[in-house]
UniProtKB/TrEMBL annotation, chains A, B:
Signal sequence, start to end: none
Protein name, UniProt field: Transcriptional regulator
Short name of any one Pfam family annotated for the protein: LacI
InterPro entries given in the database record: HTH_LacI (IPR000843), LacI/GalR-like_sensor (IPR046335), Lambda_DNA-bd_dom_sf (IPR010982), Peripla_BP_I (IPR028082)
Domain of life of the source: Bacteria
Gene Ontology MF term list: DNA-binding transcription factor activity; transcription cis-regulatory region binding
Native source organism of the sequence: Rhizobium leguminosarum
Amino acid sequence: MANLKQLAQSLGLSITTVSRALDGYADVSASTRERVREAADKVGYRPNASARRLRRQRAELVAVTLPSDPGHIGPPHFLDMLSGCAEHLAAAGLNLVIAPVPRGESELDICRRFVDGRRVDAMLLVRTKRKDERVEFLQSRGIPFVTNGRTESLLPHPYIDGDGFAGFRAATLRFHAAGHRRIGHIAGPQEYYFAHDRCRGWRAAMEECGLATDLCAEGAPLEQGGYLAALELLRQPSRPTALVCATDEMAIGALRALREVDGGNQISIVGHDDLPMGAFTSPPLSTMRMTGENLGASFASLLLRAIAGEPAEELQELHAIEFVDRDSHRRPAKAA
Amino acid sequence: MANLKQLAQSLGLSITTVSRALDGYADVSASTRERVREAADKVGYRPNASARRLRRQRAELVAVTLPSDPGHIGPPHFLDMLSGCAEHLAAAGLNLVIAPVPRGESELDICRRFVDGRRVDAMLLVRTKRKDERVEFLQSRGIPFVTNGRTESLLPHPYIDGDGFAGFRAATLRFHAAGHRRIGHIAGPQEYYFAHDRCRGWRAAMEECGLATDLCAEGAPLEQGGYLAALELLRQPSRPTALVCATDEMAIGALRALREVDGGNQISIVGHDDLPMGAFTSPPLSTMRMTGENLGASFASLLLRAIAGEPAEELQELHAIEFVDRDSHRRPAKAA
DNA sequence: CTTGACTCCCAAAACGTTTTGGAGAATCTT
DNA sequence: AAGATTCTCCAAAACGTTTTGGGAGTCAAG
């Protein structure tokens, strides 16, 4: 219950001086500054956040929208990432609020609410679509934001993304080098940038190798989606001998499908995300993941720099993809 | 960029009237109210959150501290829970901020910062300890809060918890009924309430059955902790034939230990939390979990009621534990 | 014509900070 | 000794709401 006013009164100083002393301004003498600081410490004074926010015209808040509908919120690392991001933002005086999207509302509605109510200084967007209305909205409003994943927006915007194209191209070429010729792709919904990007990587590799690109099935980015897509590919007259899956969850679903089909256990498979449970599937799932330490810190840094006004072009990070080799990609090329 | 002032000016009304019209007070005529609402809609007016918070003396924020050190943040459901909680809080105009604990700071420091800076209206605490300084601090400050997990605090406080005692007692009795006599317990750090509670449940069952309670090993609530604890129990002259593990993560570590030891694959095991990856271990891990739909909504409801001033006694939820039977608890009682 | 009740509206005072634009005293310059 | 500069401090004005305590009108009852 400590006010600036009360603190000032108890010290026989003006509010102004106390405020400036605590903020370390040079126009208050060293001795008063010390006196004020001690008194503030003693009563445990902390400036009222709402008042400062109002005066400073800063919300001291960043929001991250949590998509609820399609399936999952993303890899389990996701919470770790948010936690790291929140920690680094906190060091700069910003807090991270999580904004799930209730049924019946769009992510755009949420953005609008946060932005128009001046509740946030910036936003963090995940699961970007190729054409993402949230991005367009925030750009039109001039609110700083960073996305996890690129978009096809005309204006550049800050993002962190994995190079899915290169990763999936490399994975496909690796299967080719191992002798595979019928390499299928289990794709995520193509409206998502990451799904499209990974699909393009597979397609590019197939074309480079002079192979047909018809072994592609799309599904929801969930186990069930991968399961159904795999069944579809296995029904083809000429089955794939290897599968490149857009996500680990889909790959795990595909593994289930392979178990149900004659000779399915001879088909190689690789996923993406490095889900912890991939180490426990049978066979253990080979996968890929984005490189980079402490992603949360990177997001926080980009957010802070975006708030500081740095141009978007300088706030884009494209990370390489690395393989996480376990067993599922090692099945012989001819057996299926 | 829409102010109440600007909106009022454009309508030829006073700020007061516009504000009250939007809030639906009866002392503004129906026609003006409509007129005001239309104009507000048109310019997309949203009250400035900071200003309202200052005036109302409400932060419109709830913080949840994310423990970072011991191991994990909890089950993967955790993010879903937070998301559900945030969604229901949002319906009441509150946002949820996540507050990870940086290295070198205690959770208490974080609480203090949020509380003394009047940044939050309430707090959500997870991973309670038996004697939890955060709880004591918040109680002394009179800030509403809800914990995930009980404590041994003298004053009652709102919580949601699973009945670990009953669950672990039942699991142990079930092993006994299946013929097991040497039933071990892999315990979590006893400073945590949940770990102590579960240990007590196991111990109670053992005593009811007239069995010795020396087959107990404690470890960090992580895979590695379970692994080491299991090795310790397996070194005993008289090995356990069944293991009741405080968490699934520890159980998965214990499974690894069992694989490395002669005859270990004949020892039954059960965990707690229902981690998704438990379905993929070999054998698939039998486990337990707290009953209850949409936990996040329950937390949100308790938080709102705590803010509204309901007494703590009425804000305590103890949920039953249910078994999730897979294969790992079915090994024969005599074989080990 | 007065009184009281009722309806619709508003000026002004908060809420607790930060920041602007000096004021007064002391010190330095010339 | 006058002017310039520096050093400390402060009163007052924001920031944009919500809320308090009325103030005009209108109307019906006395």
